[in-house]
Amino acid sequence: STYPTLTSVVDYGDSWRKTQGSGGYDLRAICITKKNSGDCALSPTAPKPRFFVMGQLHAREITTGDMAYRWIDHLTQGYGTDAEVTALLDTTEVWVVPIANPDGVNIVQQGGNTPRYQRKNANTTNGSNCSGTSSSQIGIDLNRNTDSHWGGEGTSSNPCDQTYKGPSANSEVETKALQALWRNLYQDRRGTGTTDPAPADTTGVVISMHSYSNLVLFPWGWTTSYKTGNDAALRGMAKDMATIAGGWQYGQPGEVLYNAAGATDDWVYDALGTASFVWEIGPGSGTCSGFFPTFSCQTSTFWPKVKPMLLYAAKKAA
Ligand code: 0X9
Ligand code: ZN
């Protein structure tokens, strides 16, 4: 509200607890651009190209939410004074979902000075018998729940597991709300073919921030048996991002980490043909490691990498 000419906040759905009437949150996105008529509308035919970044789909990966809020501050405070930010917001819509899984974040925060290691959402209808320790927790893994190869490699059918895929594809309200938002922001640009829906180019870029392995990942994440039709372009962009980060590894998830199906990054490419990346931010050294790094690490270690990565990726959306 401090920057009404630059920002619009969109309520794109409710968290699971909110749908149950027991606490919970609105799911919120912010659109940042030098607003002209037609900008920041929930319509896939937009005047400007769109760059999208999301944090804390996995609740305990707190660096990703922190980076999202720093990005929002950097853009709103930099417009008119920082030439790079001004040029970006004059030409591009920047969308940010800082907290994609707010119920999970609430569970993390219930731990106070010893935050809880909640990864998944808070839906107990399938996982109510889980003990709530880091190895047995309630909820569905929102990065295994989409209909992009749902139930494939790297997914679990056990409701207490960290990688529980949920009772059916797209079962979770947080999943459905994100998909509806993305369908409102991006036209379906796919080509033909089920394992290779390659669009003509990589216009529009979606970044999902995760922690931690110092990696830049791109589809397909469900398998390494196939490359996408845009593999060369995506791999080239990932290489640039990894260089900007100071020498991270990059590749399809199965090349440098593991295969995992039903994730949101695959879904964005699979359903819409939009270029999509996961950044696994951190660890740094010493107290800058783990899911809950010392707060000063956000300023000293992570933001100096993530800020230029975001600026690079945002320019690639055009
Ligand atoms: O396993 C995940 O969901 C991600 N790693 S994390 O440690 N943050 O949990 C990696 C997801 C990579 N993308 C796909 N497999 N599609
Ligand atoms: Zn994650």
UniProtKB/TrEMBL annotation:
One of its GO terms (cellular component) is extracellular space. Its cofactor is Zn(2+). It catalyses: Releases a C-terminal residue, which may be hydrophobic or positively charged. GO terms for molecular function: metallocarboxypeptidase activity; serine-type endopeptidase activity; zinc ion binding. One of its GO terms (biological process) is proteolysis. It comes from the Bacteria. Residues 109-169 are annotated as: Disordered. Coiled coil: none annotated. Residues 1-317 form the Peptidase M14 domain. Keywords: Carboxypeptidase, Hydrolase, Metal-binding, Metalloprotease, Protease, Signal, Zinc. Residues 109-122 have a biased composition (Polar residues). Its EC number is 3.4.17.18. The active site is at E280 (proton donor/acceptor). Residues 123-136 have a biased composition (Low complexity). Carboxypeptidase that possesses the specificities of both mammalian Cpase A and B. Thus shows broad substrate specificity, being able to cleave Cbz-Gly-Leu, Cbz-Gly-Val, Cbz-Gly-Phe, Cbz-Gly-Lys and Bz-Gly-Arg in vitro. Belongs to the peptidase M14 family. This is Zinc carboxypeptidase. It comes from Saccharothrix variisporea. The chain holds residues 144 to 461 of 587 of the full protein.
